[in-house]
Design a protein that fits this description.
- The protein has 1 helix and 15 strands, in the order βββββββββββαββββ.
- Helices cover about 0% and strands about 70% of the residues.
- It is mostly beta strands.
- The strands form 2 sheets. A 13-stranded antiparallel sheet has the order 1-2-3-4-5-6-7-8-9-10-11-14-15, with no helix packed on it. It has a two-stranded antiparallel ribbon with strand order 12-13.
Amino acid sequence: NFVRNSTDGYDLTPETPYEHTQEKFANYTVNQKFEYSPISKLTFSLYGNYYQNERFYANSLPSHPKYFDYMLGFKTKYYPNEKSTLEISAYADRYETDDILEELNNRKQLQQESQIENVRVTGNFIIKEKHTLTIGSEYFRDNLYSIRIEGENRSADEIILFAQEDYSIGENISLVGGFRLNKHSDYNYHFAPKLSLLWKVKPINIRLSFGTGFRSPTIKELYMYFDEFGWWIVKGNPNLQPESSKYISCSFEYAKPTPDISLNLYYNDLD
């Protein structure tokens, strides 16, 4: 697939010569996916994407921006039996922002480069009809270069383990429990469990849930520094700590076609 969008720009307000209604630009997108199944239980996929966008200014600045994005991904899915799946996926993405210096033979000057890498392994298994087990692991890496980052180059890694069990206790009760364990390169370990109960008393469904959450600060939140000529400043805080949360909810559903009524009560504690 190939897409090109472009315009030479236009101006509906000639009384303001330094501001055009639509600036000139040209962007391109190319993407492709390949899929191969050597046997019915096994599938391989390879996909990629390329994006380029160049914008021009009407007010004759000595440079203009140009953006690039490259992405490559892989996925394989295997069915050991009719009730189980095993999936492995990986992708890498690189985003780049350049200044094109028009008065220096259109030389590129790198402003920002972001690289993301992700690998994920997940298994889903149905055990004796009543149990559905999901287990997996994930690796995530974020690397950022920017002239607006203190030190200009920063990176963070995270390894995640997760598991979930969905257990049907008879026809009217089901219980879902799970956890997520994070190992962050800057913030060490964090354990986040969750538990949910569904009770069906026809025509009413009652749900009770408890869970915890975790989010680490982004590289920009920690280290960004941008001064817009003293008019305003964006400044990161390297002393930020991760966010954690506790969540409790209770809901009631009257599940008939007419009327269909639901009530949800929840409490979220964010630190």
